[in-house]
Amino acid sequence: MDMLHGAFGYAVLMGLAWAAGTRSGPPPWRTVLAATGLQLVLAAALLLSGLRGHVFAIVGGLTELLEVTALRANESLLFSGVTGSEFVRAYGPILALEIAAIIIFVASLSRVLYHYGVLPWAIGQLSRFMQRLFGISAAESVSVTANIVLGMTEAPLLIRPYVARLTQSELFCLMTAGMATIAGTVMVVYASMLAGAHPEIAGHLFTASLISAPAAVAVAKLMYPETEAPVTAGGRIELEKEDTLNGLDAAARGASEGMQLFLNILAMLIAFIGLVALVNLAVGWTGRLIVGEQGAAWSLQAASGWVLRLPCWLMGVSWSEAAVIGQLMGVKTILNEFVAYVELSTRMASGQGGLSDRAFLIAVYAMCGFANFGSVAIMIGGVGSIAPERRGDLARLGLRSIVAGTLATMLTGCMVGFFV
User: Fold this and answer.
1) 8-12, 221-225, 351-355: which range is least confident on average?
2) Are 122 and 146 in contact (CB under 8 A)?
């Protein structure tokens, strides 16, 4: 019954993607069917087969290694007084310091791996496979593949010479892939935050970002079909060369970029959480005027739970669980997935989360993406700096890319519901 529920929801969400699009051409059935098939195969292989134990063990071990290594600097040199075991036992960990260490270290390591050709080789191999399977352009396939491990502003750098010449459909596909996946840097952070809620959370987050990539392509092409002739259609492109001098230069530059990313996350959290709290005060005051003190408290989160309850139910969860997941999806969209995962972790730790283990995993997969309002600004600033002439297109497609990214991760939520 759960599989039928999820399959029905998957079909309806695909229909919503088509209805919310431009409908400027025939639906790209080849791309949609290939993306759905690839999602199904990857999900089955990583969640049901014997491959799961090996992949999840590798991802979990690597995530733990990166976390322990990153926090070593905090404990031994920089913040030993407030990260030592005695301080943590007495007052708890300082989350901001742990996040900073993980992001900076993983960003630095990623730069080193790119400098020595490890990441370009992996991205190149997988992107050529996706190009042949989906029938998309080389530029699209590279950017979509890169978004599985890189952020929404780092991935377009690999196709820097082509960004200005992307068609509208290609640009929208690039944006949707950025919204529907997460970067490896923050994946380690989220795995650390949710480790207490599920022992295999790192493997699930990796799987979520991986299988959301084909969903992003399907949704993007349903909403914005290709009607032009892409410059890189049917061909291959060379990935943008790294401009670092050596491994040390790459490590230093990655650390600097990681610090900028951490400060950006910190600033957005402070600003957006404060703004939402301010709006909630006004909304709550209005609610008390209308329904009185005895009525349910009004808030943006409660409103989003009400609006998104039906779409979340389509992912295959019960109606009561859909209300909780709808609130979390609203937090993720209005603020970001970081805050939503914090709230999910708190709910599960309290023992009153209102979610079964199955619904918890569906929520984890559905929230595993950057589709939120703050990401639109990041996308315009990051991709717009590569091709300033495309800023208008980025701004025009921004809100639609949030819808597309959210639908893609919800399709992933439906898919994982088949196997858990």
Assistant:
1) 351-355
2) no
**In angstroms, what CA-CA distances link 68 with 16, 231, 405?**
43, 45, 32
Sign of the four-CA dihedral 210, 182, 79, 112: positive
* DSSP character string of 253-269: HHHHHHHHHHHHHHHHH
pLDDT single digits (tens) 300-345: 777 877 889 999 999 999 998 998 999 899 889 887 888 888 888 8
- 390's tokens: 């495309």
Between CA 246 and CA 65 the distance in angstroms is 24
Contact 420, 361 (CB under 8 A): yes
Model pTM score: 0.85
- Give me 231's structure tokens: 């410059």
Q: Measured in whole angstroms, how far is the alpha carbon of residue 322 from the centre of its chain?
A: 20
Asked if 329 and 371 count as a contact pair (C-beta separation under 8 A), the reply is no
pLDDT value at residue 159:
82
User: Whole-angstrom Cα distance, residue 212 to residue 370?
Assistant: 12
Match 């400098």 to its residue by tokens: 115
Burial group, residue 288, by CB count within 10 angstroms (0-12, 13-18, 19+): middle
Determine the 3-state secondary structure of 182 from DSSP. Answer: coil
DSSP state at residue 245: S
C-alpha to C-alpha distance for 209 and 187, rounded to whole angstroms: 9
Grade residue 86 by pLDDT with cuts at 50, 70 and 90: low
Q: Residue 74's pLDDT is what? A: 63
